[in-house]
Design a protein that fits this description.
By secondary structure, the protein is of the alpha/beta class. It is 39% helix and 17% strand. The structure holds NADP nicotinamide-adenine-dinucleotide phosphate.
Length: 293
């Protein structure tokens, strides 16, 4: 059994990006610039955005945080998005979700220039991804694909079960893994809460990607020997044994499942660290090319 160490791989990629930014600086090129729009002061969103800004600074990117109170109108937010679309210094930007209820997320996402949509949420990017064309792929699926690539995990002809069909994780992953390339060429099943016989599907799968958000849902007896298990789930539960008073639990019962696997990601330290790195990779890509590919 080999642990897929997302923390280590993410640190390697971060170094690669920082070296590339150094080269760009030394040759007098334009420093990549990521902007983030944050509406309101939802604590998890504050934490995510602060983390993104911090990592940008660590690799030498320029970063800008644009803040609004949660009573901002949809029209005013669209105007702010259009300003960033037009700003030649900003290579890519994100609008941190969720947005207040009176604002339509699809309207905001569709107002972003797809060439600056480094979150990969715009329908143009999703359509291009499904067709296998150059595009920005959203951070979590892109991070998982990169982890599979770096651990050289065979995917062609393998049966792959993705559990969870959200637009930001499960659905794009199921598309990416069925594309005619590596990583890809897998025979993919996309499961969700209406799926019947999920235990049977899990047992016959070579690769299982758990993205349902149900702590320790997958147990040892559910998987076959030699399976690859990628745990996307993160549930925060109270704990008396940590300084913060909580701990993060994945969708996989790690201690039982790991001994049966060929490869497995831990929680924390697996998929999580790869997510933010993918946003940096997309921003670097956006700064190098104003078009796709
Ligand atoms: P989501 O939007 O809540 O989607 C959950 C999906 O799981 C839905 O498709 C749901 O089915 C399905 N599901 C729920 N219970 C199920 C069950 N018992 N059997 C089969 N399918 C079931 O969640 P998400 O945003 O994709 O996130 C999933 C998990 O990944 C969460 O724990 C989240 O915190 C974590 N996450 C981690 C990262 C990271 O960087 N590591 C990034 C994003 C998300 P229906 O569609 O039928 O409702």
């Amino acid at each position: 059994m080999q642990i897929m160490d997302g923390k280590k791989v993410a640190a390697e990629i971060k170094d690669e990006i920082a070296r590339e930014v150094d080269q760009i600086k030394n040759s007098g090129g334009k420093i990549p610039h990521l902007a983030a729009i944050l509406v309101g002061n939802d604590p998890p969103s504050e934490t995510y955005v602060a983390g993104k800004v911090r990592v940008c600074e660590e690799v030498g990117f320029k970063s800008t945080l644009v803040r609004f109170t949660d009573d901002i109108s949809e029209e005013r937010l669209i105007e702010a998005v259009r300003d960033l679309n037009k700003n030649p210094d900003v290579d890519g930007f994100i609008v941190q979700l969720p947005l207040p209820e009176h604002i339509s997320e699809p309207n905001i996402i569709e107002s972003i220039d797809p060439h600056k949509d480094v979150d990969g949420f715009h329908p143009v990017n999703i359509g291009r991804m499904v067709l296998g064309l150059p595009s920005f792929v959203s951070a979590t699926p892109a991070g998982i694909i990169e982890l599979i690539r770096r651990y050289d995990i065979p995917t062609a002809g393998r049966s792959c079960l993705v559990i969870g069909r959200s637009n930001i994780v499960g659905r794009p992953l199921s598309n990416l893994l069925s594309l005619k390339r590596y990583p890809g060429n897998a025979t993919v099943t996309l499961a969700h809460s209406k799926t019947t016989n999920l235990p049977g599907l899990i047992l016959e799968s070579d690769i299982i990607i758990a993205a349902l958000g149900s702590p320790e849902f997958i147990t040892g007896e559910m998987i076959k020997e030699g399976a690859v298990v990628i745990d996307v789930g993160i549930t925060r539960v109270k704990s008396d044994f940590t300084k913060s008073g909580y701990k993060l639990i994945g969708d996989v019962k790690f201690d039982e499942v790991a001994p049966k696997c060929s490869f497995i990601t831990p929680v924390p330290g697996g998929v999580g660290p790869m997510t933010i790195i993918s946003l940096l990779r997309n921003t670097l890509l956006a700064s190098k090319s104003k078009r796709f590919g």
